[in-house]
Amino acid sequence: MGKLFLSGGGSEDQTIAIDRIFVSGIMESKFDEVLKGYVDGGGVVYGGSAGAIIFGNNILTSAHLDINTVEVEDFKGMGMIGNYSVWCHFKKNNDRLINRFVAEYDSSVIALPEETAIFIDGSEKKVIGTEPAYIFTNKGIKSITGNFSL
User: Fold this and answer.
1) Nearest CA-CA partner of 88 in 118, 113, 54
2) pLDDT of residue 13
3) CA-to-CA distance for 24 and 44, rounded, in angstroms?
4) Alpha helix stretches (DSSP H) within 31-94
5) What is this structure's pTM?
6) What order do you get walking across the sheet with 84-88 strand by strand?
7) Nearest residue to 46 (alpha-carbon basis) of 124, 131, 121, 136
8) Mind listing the pLDDT tens digit for each residue in 60-91?
9) Looking at residue 65, which CATH number applies to its domain?
10) Residue 67 falls within a domain, yes or no?
11) φ, ψ at 72 (rounded to 5°)
12) Does residue 46 sit in helix, strand or coil?
């Protein structure tokens, strides 16, 4: 089976509009079902920015970057990592925003700094990169490196 790369948006000014069009287009076209089948069949997918966010539970993790200028109304992601949403481009000053997101949407968050990725293959999960990833839940924040479980 081959490999698939799902990119994110463009410049910072365009990212949210492009990300939301990208994500909503995947969901509206039912391409999410094709992606799920591809992954379940052993396919490898790398997602960057919006391409990673789509695999989470809720795509509003990118809302702090801009306003919803494209008027997307459905913010549901593919939910392929349980009740976790993916927060890309994480910075330490995002903690308060993420905690608010967790409380408002009842969705835990995997926050990824620029230097970090997560690898998920069935039950195997590990952090790759030079910085840790962070898990935000309604019980607090946990820094993760190496292998981890959700």
Assistant:
1) 113
2) 45
3) 22
4) 31-40, 50-53
5) 0.82
6) 84-88, 108-112, 133-137, 140-144
7) 121
8) 887 665 555 555 666 788 888 888 999 999 99
9) 3.40.50.880
10) yes
11) -70, 135
12) strand
